Amino acid sequence: MGRLFAGLVGASEARTREMILRAEAMAPCVLWIDEIDKGFGGDSRSDGGTSQRVLGTVLTWMAEKTSAVFVVATANGVERLPAELLRKGRFDEIFLLDLPSAEERRAILELQLGRRRPITAFPWRCWWIAPPASPGPSWSRP
Question: Is there a cis peptide before residue 28, judged by omega within 30 degrees of 0?
Answer without folding.
Answer: yes
